[in-house]
Structures are given as structure tokens and as C-alpha cells.
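Quick one:
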Amino acid sequence: MNGAFFGKLFQKKDQAFAYAMIGLLFILFSAMVFYVGYSNEEKETLLMKTEAERAFNSIYMALTENPTTDKATSLMNEEGVIGIGIYSSAGRLVRWLGNVPFVFPYDDFQTETAAGTQSAAYGMYRFNRSSGILQYMRMARLSIDIDAGSLQIDTAGQLKTDLNFPEVLYVVMDAGSYAKALTRIWMLAGAAETLLIVVFFIFVRMYLNNVRYREMLTRQESLVSLGAAARTLAHEIKNPLSAMTIQVALLKKVLPEQYSGELAVVDQEIGRLTQLTNKVSDFLRNPVGNPQLIEVRSFIEGLFSLFALPVRFTGDSLSRAYIEFDPDRARSVFENLLKNAMESCTGRDPEVEVEITSGRRGMVSISVLDRGDGLPEGSDQKKVFDPFFTTKIHGSGIGLAITRQFLKARNGTIELSAREGGGTRAEVTLPAVPEKFAAVILAAGHVGSAE
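Output:
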């Protein structure tokens, strides 16, 4: 266990906590939106019940005062009431005005009562959204006069009477305004929820961008520190390497032939260290260099002879495409990609191919393809462009980092992806130079080559 491990662990915990808090806040705000919606719906329902009660009382009082029903009928039209009725406890119609059923529709309200959402004592309603018709009822609280002489008591002490007491008030009315109010409430709630989703989506994006920015800043700080250390190290290594090279050359002259093998090993390792320090210098110095016009196909074809195994262009590769790039850096980029493809497997031909195609928006795509062992699995895929990261035994891990640095300086990109059927595709994308401009540059003689 080291500090880096605990740092990553704490970072993951911080991100998990941030996501949990964002999710919790989203749930709370969503609950508030729906709570406000249901509260407003309840408010409109109470107003609707009040309106039904008021309409019933107004019409019933008018009907009582004027039995000719003219005033009551006029009030019904004004209030949008279709009919009112007073029903007995047995459900029979006692008094009515307008269009109401002769037998009270208990079954229509039974479902609402069973659901426990409404009370007959305080008023129950059924609302049809499609028609906008509202049915409202509640238990009546009417005073009635009873002739005591008509009442009889049986032997069990129970009251015997054929009277049915008025018990239920019933109103049928047009409640289109109620339907519009409900629609408006839930449309606003839906709009608020949509806005909430958008705000939280933006918030999450900002958080992720901030995480990526911090990671990039940390990586850049590491690269700055690494660059300073590598620059000093490369300078300090070059001097001893130069002295060692001179001494090996002298030893080759004075030592017997039997020591030539050992000296060759020393010479080879010195050369490898020299090459590594040169690559580090390339990585640290100005990556732009001296851009020149390069004809891509012929330039890459000039690198094929460096490798023992054959390399070929795919059948659909462009015969001619131009880029502006420093020739030395272009050689470093494509030679490194071809070398990686050649070393992608052992004991068999990796079947390396190069594909050149036209990209979008004036770009040219150069892909190096192989049938090797493929990309490393897991988190190693994200590290392949990090300086000094390598999965090879004898690799330095600086090649892809230099490649990306050079391409980025010329507004280019590089992507590694797995091929269907096995192997890897390394795709380089660079701005293409149109042929008409290339012809002008060619005539001026500013052309780069792989030599």
C-alpha cells in the first residue's frame, strides 16, 4: 500500500459522495415539485367542492322561495349546473331540478369511498376529465317536520315508520374550469421538473468538467516536474555516455578479438541509452519544429525498409494526400507506430497494414493496423500515452507520449482502438493540405521526406 493508492481511494470516495449528494438533492427537489403540484390540486379540489356546495345552496334556496323554478333554472344556467337532487336514505329521489337520475348512483361513489380518499360526510366527487362533468354528493343535514301521530313503537321498542328521511345531496355540473386548472397545475409541474433535470444535468456536467480539469492540472504539474527532472537527467547522462563511447572505441582497438562480443553488448546498451536520452530531449523541446509539405503515402513507404517483416497499404488507401509537418517529427511519429505494430506479438507475423483515408472537415486519417495481441485491459488503456508507461520488457514508454505531443502541436490527434477479429488500430488525424495548395508548395521546392 502506498500514498498513490490511498489518494485514488479517497478520490473515488469523494466522487461517490458528490454523486450521492447530487442524487439526493435531485430527489428532494423533485419531491418538492410534486408536493407543490399535489397541494395545488388539493386546493383546486376544495375550491371545486365549495363551488358545488354554493351552487346547490343557491339553487335550492331559489327553488324553495319560488316553486315555479324560473329563478332556480336561471341560476343553474349561470352556475353551469346540469341538475341537483335530494335523495332519501333508500336512494329514492325526493326533490330535484334539471337532469339527475331517479335512483341515487351509490355504486359510482363506492370505489372512491373504498379507496379511503374521500368522506361522504364532507363531500365526495367523481370527475370525468374527457367530458368535464362533475358529480358531487354529501350526506344531507336538512331539518324536517314529522307528525308524531303517525309514528308507532313495536314490542321491541323500535320505531316503526314508512318514512324515508332526506339524506343525500347530489349535484351534476360542468367543471371545465376545474379540468383546465388541473391541466395547468401539472403542466407547470412538468415544466418545473424538466427545468430541474436540465439544471442538474448542467450541474453534473460542470462537476465532471471540474474533475477532468483537476486531473489535467495534476497531470500537467506532474509533467512539468517530470520535464525539469528529465531535462537535467538527460543532460547529466549524455556526458558519461560520450566518454563511454570513446572508451569502448579504444577498447575495440586494443583488446583481443575474443572480447568483441562483450564489447558489442556494451556498445549496444550505450546506444540504447543514447537513443532514450534523445527521445526525452525530443519530448521536452519545441514539438512544432520546421513544418514542410509531406506526401503521406510516399513518406510512410520510405519507412517500410526499416522493418524485417512486410508492411503494406490497404486497398482503399488514398494514392495521394498531403500534410504540413516537420519531417523529423513525422518520421518519429510513424516509425514509432510501425515499430509498436511490429512488436505487438511474438512468434508470428502481426500483419501490419497502413490505411490512408479522407477524414471529415478537411482532415486526413492515417491508421496503422495490426493483428497482434491487442491493447492492455483495464485501466492500463488510459495510461498508454503517459510518459514512461510501458507494458514491454525492453520498452521506455516515451514513444506514444512524444507522438501525441508532436501531433497535438499540429492540431492533430491519435486514438488507439481494438480491431474486430483481434489486433489494434492506431489512427492519426491531421489537417490535410488541398492539392491545389500542395502544387504551389511543390513548385517552390519545400517538400519533406523520410530520409
